[in-house]
Write a structure and sequence with these properties.
about 425 residues; alpha+beta; SH3 type barrels; 2 domains; eight-stranded mixed β-sheet; five-stranded antiparallel β-sheet; globular
């Protein structure tokens, strides 16, 4: 099926700013609540949200085999489960409806009032009900930096890392949409020198992790694997992902089993899912891999995407300082390799499952994807525009992630992925 929605020459009758992340070639999917407290599945063009539930009820998706309530739900899971053919038909149809040459909706004032909302008049919700969430550890630069900081720099990568996409199972209940504030979490920390008792209290080393995450469809049954050349049929799209991390809690608890309370208190995603189809014009090769992957991990075509990523810190009532510029194309292990590995043992993957890329770090210091790396474990504090410094975050700090693709065919973006840090909840510990 031809992806007509991607036509770079297409223009919309909706006003779209030149530098918008959401031109008519994007057509992402999300869930929002209107000022009338109606929850609906929608899309976005420019600064306008499109109510797909209303659009469907008004007959604009005629000819596409959709259930009556497919867009009248509080998550995208059922729509995603319909598969890639349906996603493409719907994106193509939305592009046609909002094409500058199509007056069917443009010239119907009554219908437009039901379908189109200013983006500042809605509230974005989580786009999917995340049943399961896996976070990978797939950036060679990030893994090398962490290994250098906490192990021998000459042997920063563990022997298995160059052969297998490493991951862990996360906590889906703490995934939150962009704009949701987070509370500084409590936990145990390493005993101070001379003591055998661990510390306890709010984390002092609150960090971000710059990531992307992909959303899957119903992909396989228990005991079945997904061949690597079929993986993209089961990847709906991507979101930005901030895997908040409490480094002092993490350092005490990660041996021998890995991430737990240092990771599961909050993870923020951008609310609009950008489809793989929309990102197709920005496909690039992933980095050359040191060892030839095992056959089930061998990928024939270009496996990554040229997605520019940026991180900013804005103190409360202050000006934002950009502290990192990176790119998704730096990831050593691709999404297809991650999904193929995830299911090689027969693990079932379902609609709405989320797979985090792992922290994305590039080859230069300004492209590192965490405060741990940017400050080299507090040895090199970052200076902000207001003259203050940061090794890790302070209460009131606003952390802003941005992501977009841009080439001669145009620009496709993800919007912002933001979160403000609130003080820890105070409570009295039992004696």
């Amino acid at each position: 099926m031809i992806i007509t929605a991607n036509n770079p020459k297409r223009k919309s009758w909706l006003e779209v700013a030149k530098e918008s992340d959401f031109p008519i070639q994007n057509i992402p999917f999300g869930v929002f609540i209107t000022k009338d407290d109606i929850i609906t599945i929608g899309s976005r063009i420019g600064d306008y949200a499109i109510d797909l539930g209303a659009l469907h009820q008004l007959g604009y998706f005629e000819g596409i085999p959709l259930t009556e309530d497919i867009f009248l739900q509080d998550n995208l899971n059922d729509f995603i489960a319909d598969g890639r053919k349906t996603w493409r038909l719907v994106r193509n149809k939305i592009a046609a409806i909002f094409d500058v040459s199509n007056g069917n909706l443009r010239d119907n004032v009554h219908h437009k009032e039901k379908v189109i909302f200013r983006i500042d008049a809605i509230e974005m919700l989580l786009p999917v009900a995340v049943g399961d969430y896996t976070d990978f550890y797939a950036s060679k630069e990030h893994a090398t930096n962490v290994g250098s900081l906490f192990r021998d720099p000459k042997n920063a990568l563990l022997p298995n890392w160059l052969h297998v996409p490493i991951g862990y199972h996360g906590r889906s209940s703490s995934i939150i949409p962009s704009g949701t504030s987070i509370r500084r979490p409590y936990g145990q920390t390493k005993p101070i020198e001379g003591s055998n008792a661990p510390g306890f209290g709010p984390t002092k080393l609150l960090d971000f992790e710059l990531e992307m995450a992909f959303i899957t469809t119903d992909a396989n049954s228990l005991g079945e694997r997904i061949p690597i050349d079929e993986t993209e049929e089961h990847i709906f799209g991507l979101v930005q992902f901030n895997d908040w991390s409490a480094r002092d809690i993490q350092a005490w608890e990660y041996v021998p089993l890995g991430p737990f309370l240092g990771k599961n208190f909050a993870s923020t995603i951008s609310p609009w899912i950008v489809t793989l189809d929309a990102l197709e014009p920005f496909r690039v090769n992933n980095p050359e891999q040191v060892h030839e992957p095992l056959p089930y991990l061998k990928q024939k075509k270009k496996g990554s995407y040229d997605i520019h990523l940026q991180v900013g810190i804005q103190p409360e009532n202050g000006e934002e300082t950009v502290v990192a510029n990176s790119n998704f194309k730096y990831m050593y292990w691709t999404m297809s390799q991650q999904l193929a590995h995830h299911t090689v043992n027969g693990c079932p993957v379902e609609a709405g499952d989320m797979m985090g890329s792992g922290t994305i770090s590039g080859p230069t210091k300004d492209s590192y994807g965490s405060m741990l790396e940017l400050t080299w474990n507090e040895e090199e504090p970052l200076k902000l525009k207001d003259g203050t410094t940061r090794t890790y975050f302070k209460d009131g700090d606003h952390v802003i992630l941005r992501g977009y693709c841009e080439n001669s065919q145009g620009r496709i973006g993800f919007g912002k992925c933001t979160g403000k840090i609130l003080p820890a909840v105070k409570y009295n510990l039992p004696e």
